[in-house]
Amino acid sequence: MLDRGSYTTKILGSGGIYPYESKIERYLSDMRDYFIDRKAVEEILSSGRNPLIYVVYEISRELRGELNVGCTVIYPGKIGDEYHFTKGHFHSNVTTGEVYIGVSGEGLILMQDKNGAFNVGEIETGTVVYVPPGFAHRAVNTGKTELVFLAVYPSDAGHDYETIMRTGFAKIVVERGGRPTLIDNPNYRRI
Ligand SMILES: [Fe+2]
């Protein structure tokens, strides 16, 4: 359990951070409407498998002006041709940004605002990614090992998963010819 009076935690790589306050696990069954290849999703789940896609270890604070810390571990793999990713979200408080810091592995950060502006950046060990206010953000693991990154964001940011779930991201990351490739999302709906 986290000692609230302590202000340090340690990065354990694919073990996340310790100590942490909460741990969120996202299995394929939690994300069945997110991946593009619904047939692949149902085949995996109906075969009795339910792979763990990612875990978030988090320490959240309460007061405005305080900063939360999260460590996300995305396990390597694909559903159909699509690489494992996080659900992605806007912040409920649209004036709040976020910083991602790559710890290990390799992947992409997709960002998209409500006017359809889209941005993609690579993340690996030592990469610092700034997510501006108003941009939904999703991380994609395109590597063969866990993608691990830290996130630092305002305590009053809040998570809006709903909006981006309805529209999807404009682009998705799939394997083409053995390489991660960004393609248009055929199911993308503009707001
Ligand atoms: Fe965020």
Describe the overall structure.
This protein is mostly beta strands. The chain has one domain: Jelly Rolls (Sandwich). The protein is built from two helices and 17 strands. It has helices at about 40-45, 160-165, and strands at about 10, 15-20, 20-25, 50-60, 65-75, 80, 80-85, 90, 100-105, 105-115, 120-125, 130, 135-140, 145-155, 160, 170-175, 180-185. The strands form six sheets. A six-stranded antiparallel β-sheet has the order 3-4-5-14-9-12, with no helix packed on it. It has a three-stranded antiparallel β-sheet with strand order 11-10-13, with no helix packed on it. Strand 10 (about 105-115) and strand 11 form a beta hairpin. It starts with 9 loop residues before the first strand and ends in a 7-residue tail after the last strand. The mean pLDDT is about 95.
- Kindly give the count of domains: 1
Q: Give start-end ranges of low-pLDDT stretches.
A: none
Average pLDDT: 96
Shape: globular
**What's the helical proportion of residues?**
under 10%
Number of strands: 17
Mind telling me the CATH class?
A: Mainly Beta
Question: In the CATH hierarchy, what is the architecture at level 2?
Answer: Sandwich
Distance linking N and C termini = 41 Å
Named CATH topology: Jelly Rolls
Order of helices and strands: EEEHEEEEEEEEEEEEHEE
Bound chemical compounds: fe (ii) ion
Q: Strand order, main sheet: write it out.
A: 3-4-5-14-9-12
CATH superfamily: Jelly Rolls
Please tally the helical runs, counting DSSP H or I stretches of 4 or more residues. Answer: 2
SS content category = mainly beta
Strand content: over 45%
